[in-house]
Amino acid sequence: MNFDGFTDDPSDAAYLKSTTLHEFGHALGLLHEHFNPTGGIQWNKPVVFAYYRDMFNWTDAQTEYNLFNKYAENKTQYTVYDPKSIMSYYIPKEHTLNGYSVDDPSELSATDKKFIASVYPLRCNMPTR
Q1: In angstroms, rounded to a whole number, what is the distance separating the alpha carbons of residues 18 and 87?
Q2: How many CB atoms lie within 10 A of CB 19?
Q3: Is the pTM of this model over 0.85?
Q4: Domains of the chain by residue range
Q5: Using one digit for the tens of pLDDT, what is the confidence trace for 80-98?
Q6: DSSP states of 41-109
Q7: Structure letter (DSSP) for residue 34
């Protein structure tokens, strides 16, 4: 889990909350939503490469690996693509060829909750000791 860069500044609170939910999503086995095999994001790769090079000093290979790879359908469990998922990355419209964008999620989506419940079902009537 990566919580690097946070301060005691109250303006970090919302970002810290969404990052915590996202990182715990990973701990529960959730994957980045932009890798979803059903996503179909039409990336504007030259713009995205330049952005991640300038913002994070990533090489094009790092950007390719961290943003453009798709999970194979036969290698993962997945739902329909959910842009409201806490596992989504912020995607500005400039990063896509068709103006598609994703706001930075701040809460678990309904699909997140349903998927987590399917992987970790509630166990009722467990014997007590």
Answers
A1: 10
A2: 20
A3: no
A4: 31-42+69-118
A5: 789 899 999 899 999 999 9
A6: --B-HHHHHHHHHHHH---HHHHIIIII----GGGS---S--TTSTTPPPB-GGGBSS---B----S--
A7: G
Q: Are 81 and 38 in contact (CB under 8 A)?
A: yes
State CA 67 to chain mean position distance. Answer: 10
CB of 34 closer than 8 Å to CB of 88: yes
Span 47-78, pLDDT tens digits? 999 999 999 999 999 999 999 987 766 666 66
d(CA 117, CA 32): 18
Report d(CA 100, CA 85) in Å as an integer.
Answer: 16
Q: Which amino acid is at 28?
A: L
- Whether the pLDDT of residue 126 is over 70: the answer is no
Q: Identify the residue whose tokens are 């194979």.
A: 72
Looking only at Cα atoms, what is the longest distance across the chain? 61
By C-alpha distance, which of 5, 82, 97 is closest to 48? 97
